[in-house]
From TrEMBL:
Cofactor: [2Fe-2S] cluster
UniProt keyword Iron-sulfur, yes or no: yes
Domain 2Fe-2S ferredoxin-type residues, every copy: 2-105
Matches recorded under PANTHER family: FERREDOXIN-2, MITOCHONDRIAL, FERREDOXIN/ADRENODOXIN
Protein family (similarity comment): Belongs to the adrenodoxin/putidaredoxin family.
CDD domains: fer2
Record keywords, A-Z: 2Fe-2S, Iron, Iron-sulfur, Metal-binding
Domain of life: Bacteria
Recorded GO MF terms: 2 iron, 2 sulfur cluster binding; electron transfer activity; metal ion binding
GO biological process, one term: P450-containing electron transport chain
Gene3D superfamilies documented for this protein: 3.10.20.30
Protein known as: 2Fe-2S ferredoxin
Length: 107
């Protein structure tokens, strides 16, 4: 099972096992990690699961859809590494990945 490290807005790091086939958002929510609110439950409609994915890990996932990018553009911490964690499906190659949860997912 891949291990993923989530870096919370306050800098706290949590490394958890996330099953292949689950979303990065599910990994956070199921482990009660701070920062990923996931108001819509993974429906790609709220942007409260916004994360920053380092460029080296971006290739593990499909490109962001127009719908996802539209939501992300309205977040406070939007940048080139921005993704909605509900749209990132974990695979074996995600083992060791680090994600940063920006401030503002609860607004």
């Amino acid at each position: 099972m891949p291990k993923i490290t989530y870096v919370a807005p306050d800098g706290t790091e949590s490394t958890v096992d996330v099953a292949v086939g689950l979303s990065v958002m599910d990994g956070s929510v199921r482990n009660n990690l701070p920062g990923i609110v996931a108001e819509c439950g993974g429906g790609c409609s709220c942007a409260t699961c916004h994360v920053h994915v380092d460029a080296e890990w971006q290739k593990q996932f499909d490109e962001a859809s127009d719908e996802e990018l539209e939501l992300l553009e309205f977040t406070d911490a939007f940048c080139a590494q921005s993704r909605l964690s509900c749209q990132l499906i974990v695979n074996e190659q995600c083992d060791g990945m680090r994600l940063t949860v920006p401030e503002g997912n609860d607004s």
